[in-house]
Amino acid sequence: MSTLDKRLGQRFLPYGANYLDWSDMPELREVIEQQVLFRYQTETESMASRLERTVAERLGVGHALAVHNCTEALRLALISTRPAVGDLVHIPAVTFVAVAGAVLSCGLIPVLVDADDSLSMDPTLLPPDAQRVITAHMEGTVAPLPTGVPYLVEDCAQSLGARFPDGRYVGTAGYAGTFSFHHNKVLTSGEGGLVVTGADDAWATMRRYHDHGSARVPGQYPTWNDDAHFGENFVTSEQVAAVQCQQFRHLDELLAGLERMYAIAMAELPGRTDLEVLPRAVGDVKVSLRFRCESKELRNAAVAALTAAGIANWTLGKYLLPEHPVLTGRRSLYRDGFPWNHAPKGLLALSRDGFARTRDLLDRTLCLPLSPELAEKEQALVAKSVRQVLEAL
Ligand SMILES: *Cc1c(COP(=O)(O)O)cnc(C)c1O
């Protein structure tokens, strides 16, 4: 194995986990030296608050709240809208099941909305009176947004740093935006999540719920005011926030590394008409190359050949929620089936063709990671080896 093969082979997960280096952990050192791992232990600005301030300033949004993962962030965004049990939430038919899980665990009912050509949720399928919608910017792709939805949540778990054509960051256009620092995301702290919102009252509600429903003042025991309600404990830790602050410092470098490799790959890859790289929008985070193949057979042959050559790749069929057993089987741990026992009968889905076109697109799609941390020379070498494998098919 060449050094390059080894470096790529070792990257079990295609992106994320970059820049972790002892020489670059001053925030973590600071936290350990302070001897405080709980964010509300002291009155002074915690590492978690520093992270939230940094993220809010960078994204240009009023508030950010750090939690343990993006699933909790989605739950906070939903429950802060003060819904009734059984209310419908429109979600993408093509996304990670965490989105459906967040909806269900809040006692709400997911309605699966079919995808457009880019495999983002098609907002034209939404009913005009949709109250709660989660859209997901998958794999760095900027999804089109619906208009006039009172509670639009942008799930940006896979798209930190992506921008709309008008320059605003994804996550800042609707009621709330959610982010993940899971190992397999743009930046990582192993597990980690953030919710952002421009609405002061929404932020106050989320902050209360995430800390036992309390109105805690940092440095003090929590208190419960007249407006208190039950909550949970989603409060993050200082050492996790420290790693997130370190990761966040590298965001620009990471985005630039992805842009560079994307440009190299677009210039290098063959113009095969039966196996096309889909061009990405300017504001996308270029986490991957997306190929659309003429047939499922060709796609599967490409997967086999790339895998045999040690080149990381993945497909998107796993994201097709209308075929997910939890949703098709209306599974629940509750004896009465909660919250499905509050759901209308029949398939809760919006599609023009029973998802046939989406299934076909997913069957013919193939993704290759772009590696921001590789030097330009190495990125060119990777692009060349991808080209060789694809040309030989
Ligand atoms: C990863 C992911 C989530 C869940 O994020 P966690 O931080 O692992 O809870 C939600 N939505 C999408 C689209 C994801 O990719």
UniProtKB/TrEMBL annotation:
UniProt record, GO biological process: polysaccharide biosynthetic process
Keywords attached to this entry: Aminotransferase, Pyridoxal phosphate, Transferase
Annotated positions of the N6-(pyridoxal phosphate)lysine modification: K185
Keyword Transferase on entry: yes
Gene Ontology molecular function, alphabetical: pyridoxal phosphate binding; transaminase activity
Active-site residues per Swiss-Prot or TrEMBL entry: K185
Gene3D superfamilies cross-referenced by the UniProt entry: Aspartate Aminotransferase, domain 1 (3.90.1150.10), Type I PLP-dependent aspartate aminotransferase-like (Major domain) (3.40.640.10)
Cofactor or coenzyme needed: pyridoxal 5'-phosphate
Family stated for the protein in its record: Belongs to the DegT/DnrJ/EryC1 family. L-glutamine:2-deoxy-scyllo-inosose/scyllo-inosose aminotransferase subfamily.
PANTHER family: DTDP-4-AMINO-4,6-DIDEOXYGALACTOSE TRANSAMINASE, TRANSAMINASE
Name of the protein: Aminotransferase
Lineage, top ranks: Bacteria, Bacillati, Actinomycetota, Actinomycetes, Kitasatosporales
